[in-house]
């Protein structure tokens, strides 16, 4: 069984001041969770789920998807993708497309919706004719591309998430996708995809998140030098074997940890196993509201051997547009004034 697990826990304390117009919300969709139609599917399998925002946005947001959990058959070609459609201020649709032959009984998706003038999402489909070096041959292979974006970002930062792929692994000992992002410029970022052995990548669907917002914490964590890491120890196949990381949160945050938008997803992996299925998971929870650090952990269990793993994360305060905060303040003041007037009238009516 192939199993990879990544868990991200965050706690934040600090102060943040911002003047920009931003709105952020996040959630998880568990539409595919071992139901019979996913365990014994009929291909092609296509479905969608409606996501309703907890709070209505002031204008139509951008939506970023990333995968927190996925399971599929060992030594079977995998062909799947997720995409967003019909985005409004009230919600959107997540579309799932699974073409087999690998069965995908579990697929958990994290979504992040935002209105932010200093951030954008790009979904890029790399087709069969694009991946000339990755879809054939053997051994370590790589191919380079450029991600273009608007010139409005003076100091951009970029993270990438795998949200779909078609991979052939019939003659391969491993299933491998690795993403390397180069140094961003004001208009583009170089990206390199790598694979190895006889793993053939026919298509890729990548979600890129680009931001120059100083209030957004983002990055990628992972390791390929795993000989001494505990998550490669297969002696205990029942418990989770975890590799942990710790990062400091800038002192610019003022929000309690449970108020922040935390999102994490799979960026790359290299796994093999002698039995069972692949299983990859990324999770998160807040451990201490008063801590100035956030903790990341990923690992594996069962028969899976994890040679390489990368997780990308985004952390952002749940900001509101300035006008909305002013409206809320005015409403509160008006309510207080109304209560005072009502009490004054009541007091007068009780005077004999």
Note down, in words, how this protein is organized:
A 7-stranded mixed β-sheet has the order 2-7-4-17-1-18-15, with no helix packed on it. The protein has helices at residues 36-39, 322-350, and strands at residues 4-10, 22-33, 45-52, 62-73, 78-85, 91-98, 106-116, 119-126, 141-148, 157-168, 175-181, 188-195, 200-211, 217-223, 241-248, 261-272, 277-285, 293-300, 305-316. By secondary structure, it is mainly beta.
Quick structural gist:
With 352 residues, this protein is mainly beta. Helix content is 9%, strand content 50%. Mean pLDDT is 78; it is low at 6-19, 225-232 and 321-352.
Layout of secondary structure:
Blueprint: E1 4-10, E2 22-33, H1 36-39, E3 45-52, E4 62-73, E5 78-85, E6 91-98, E7 106-116, E8 119-126, E9 141-148, E10 157-168, E11 175-181, E12 188-195, E13 200-211, E14 217-223, E15 241-248, E16 261-272, E17 277-285, E18 293-300, E19 305-316, H2 322-350
Parallel strand pairs: 1-17
Antiparallel strand pairs: 1-18, 2-7, 3-6, 4-7, 4-17, 5-6, 5-10, 8-13, 9-12, 10-13, 11-12, 11-16, 14-19, 15-18, 16-19
Protein name: H-type lectin domain-containing protein
GO molecular function, one term: carbohydrate binding
Domain H-type lectin: 49-114
């Amino acid at each position: 069984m192939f199993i990879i697990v990544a868990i991200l826990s965050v706690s934040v304390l600090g102060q943040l001041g911002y003047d920009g117009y931003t709105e952020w919300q996040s959630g998880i969709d568990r539409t595919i969770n071992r139901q019979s139609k996913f365990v014994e599917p009929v291909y092609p399998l296509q479905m969608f789920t409606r996501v309703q925002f907890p709070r209505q946005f002031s204008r139509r947001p951008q939506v970023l998807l990333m995968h927190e959990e996925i399971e599929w058959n060992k030594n079977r070609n995998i062909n799947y993708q997720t995409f967003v459609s019909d985005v409004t201020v009230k919600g959107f649709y997540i579309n799932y497309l699974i073409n087999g032959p690998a069965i995908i009984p579990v697929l958990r998706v994290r979504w992040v919706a935002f209105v932010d003038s200093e951030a954008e999402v790009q979904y890029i489909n790399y087709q069969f004719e694009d991946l000339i070096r990755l879809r054939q041959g053997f051994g370590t292979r790589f191919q380079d591309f450029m991600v273009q974006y608007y010139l409005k970002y003076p100091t951009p930062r970029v993270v990438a998430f795998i949200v779909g792929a078609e991979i052939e692994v019939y003659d391969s000992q491993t299933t491998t996708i690795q993403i390397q992002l180069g140094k961003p410029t004001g208009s583009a970022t170089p990206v390199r995809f790598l694979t190895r052995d006889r793993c053939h990548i026919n298509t890729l669907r990548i979600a890129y998140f680009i931001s120059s917002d100083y209030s957004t914490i983002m990055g990628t964590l992972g390791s390929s030098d795993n000989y001494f890491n505990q998550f490669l120890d297969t002696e205990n196949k029942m418990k989770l074997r975890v590799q942990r990381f710790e990062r400091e949160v800038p002192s610019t945050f003022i929000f309690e940890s449970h108020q922040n938008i935390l999102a994490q997803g799979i960026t790359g992996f290299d796994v093999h196993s002698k039995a069972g299925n692949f299983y990859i998971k990324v999770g998160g929870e807040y451990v201490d509201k008063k801590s100035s650090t956030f903790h990341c952990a990923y690992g594996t269990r069962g028969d899976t051997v994890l040679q390489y793993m990368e997780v990308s994360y985004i952390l952002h305060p749940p900001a509101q547009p300035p006008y909305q905060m002013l409206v809320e303040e005015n409403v509160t003041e008006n309510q207080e004034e109304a209560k005072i007037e009502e009490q004054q009238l009541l007091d007068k009516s009780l005077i004999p």
